[in-house]
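FORM 7B - TANDEM STRUCTURE REPORT

SECTION 1: FIRST PROTEIN
SEQUENCE AND TOKENS:
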Amino acid sequence: MSLKDQITEDMKTAMRAKDSERLGTIRLLLAAMKQKEVDERVVLDDVAVVAIVDKLIKQRKDSIAAFEQAARQDLADKEKAEMAVLLAYLPERMSAHEVTAAVQAIVAELGAKGPGDMGKVMGAVKAQLAGKADMGQVSAAVKAALAG
């Protein structure tokens, strides 16, 4: 079963269980997926769905930080609940050690020497680790690998 089908099934389950919080978040995700399909006239595969989920999680993290800074814990808690639902659709994340090892292997493979090669390395790393690792962590690992 594809990730897209799984999300649709989870929406039906949330409707039957009358779980309005979860249902709202899943509908938000499905709307983002549908928007992408309509805008780009494509059928989303699992990689594209993971990218959308990643983007929505990043938005939730930014919102949580803003709400906590503004002392709006009620809104921050709502965003955290949405983020927890979205996290269930991401594949198992790589550990920091695995990310560092993968980045070093790609840097060696490309023969990258310094910070000037950051774009080339990030392009290859994104293609290989998309959805498997946090891109903020990946970026830091690439900078460290190219600096040293």
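SECTION 2: SECOND PROTEIN
SEQUENCE AND TOKENS:
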Amino acid sequence: MSLQIELEHYRQTLIVRLQGELDHHSADTVKTRMEEAVMRGNVNHIIMSFKELSFMDSSGLGVILGRYKQITARGGKMVVCDLNPAVYRLLEMSGLFKILSIQDNERKALQSLEVAL
């Protein structure tokens, strides 16, 4: 299965929706598209929605950590939301929850960043 990437700009937040499998085959594409969107747009925060993500391996963790470093260097925040149990466990075991905010859904993620409707 491949990965579909949807990027949406909402105010100063980049919302990234991933559908499919985030693995070593797709990680570079996600990394590049997110980096370009952050550099090109007026982006202060990133929300990554994993609602439709069926699988993620350590390459996905690298993508998340790299974009976290990129956005926090700009003074921004990163939030992940809509995690399925397998992805939640991977993020928990990796220790990323110590630095990332987790929310139930995109609306709560936007509210946590104080950029909600």
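SECTION 3: OBSERVATIONS ON SECOND PROTEIN
The chain has a mean pLDDT of 94.
The domain at 3-111 is CATH 3.30.750.24 (Transcription Regulator spoIIAA).

SECTION 4: SIGNATURE
Preparer initials: ____
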